[in-house]
Amino acid sequence: MDIRPYEIAVPQDDLDDLHDRLARTRWPAALTGGWERGTPVDYARDLAERWRTAYDWRAHERRLNAMPQFLADVDGQPLHGLHVRAERGDATPLLLCHGYPSNLVEFARLAPLLAAPPDGTPAFHVVVPSIPGFGLSTPLTGHGWDIARTADAFDRLMRELGYERYTVFGEDVGAGVVDQLCLDAGERVVAALCATDPGAIATQYTPPTDHLSDEERAEHDRLKAARSEDFGYLAVQTTRPLSVAYGLTDSPAMQLTWIVEKFQEWTDPTRTSPDDAVDVDDLLTLVTVSWFGRAGDGAANMLYEAAHAAAAWGRTHDRPLGMAAFGEEPLMRRILDPGGRLAYWGEHPRGGHFPAMEVVDDLAQDIRAFLGERRLAAV
Domain Epoxide hydrolase N-terminal: where (predicted)? Predict the structure, then answer.
């Protein structure tokens, strides 16, 4: 595997082109209403104008470049990421796996927090690759980049970086990568932690719920009904990814609203808007990296590949597995860990689908508490 140091250096012409496209956006009619039909036009216009005029990409480019990055070639596929090493000799190798519709920017505040922790707490050598097709791990150079192939690439990456044994954290699609690593990499994975939120138990992939009481089953049905109209993005991208890829590649306004709508749907429900749930410039940085990487197309195709790949039903592993749950919902543990068999369960009343951006200190606490305890087995 060819791995070389990398710094982000977006050409000024590309930045000018982004601003020009935003200025020339053809907006839909601004009908009244909330988020039930997608990102409201007035909200989208205000955020796009901030992106065009007030947001300083160069400052955030410098912030990302302050952390060591790599660009790897995995079977001809570019793989971009962060590699933030701790100064301490007892640091634990840690792979962070993001989900949809994200990229490495999601962990840009978490990585240095874990690599340079307060005295007396575990330290980590942190590796944060963007999934092939996401962020700057672009363009996709061929078909077949499903969860299993991504997990294999990440395992090869960790070994090439010198980590024969390591811990791993993931959420959403990244949790699928974590599970695949536990199955295929075996004892190289010392321990694994996944994040969850109430939305995770309201999908078609929910584990069996026969053990729930009638009252709990009714509440679970209510949660699923509330999410029933949230899966249009998935239906399109798992069947006709190219149909949406043209717009995501050509229109920054579409790429912005496509991602922002998921931050509205999936972040802490007590928050009123995406910029109330996460730092607005962090959100715009995540979107900007997706835009410059032309990642709307790659992310859509990855979901297509995942939906059409053979699933590893029935396979089990013996890797220590923990869960960090964000948002107050008692059914999460009742459904995901009914027998209390997980090696770790952490609960936090705030946060949602993007804990590294919403409640970074809480997530760092879980990673240190569970994965940090495995450091002697990993180093």
Answer: 3-107
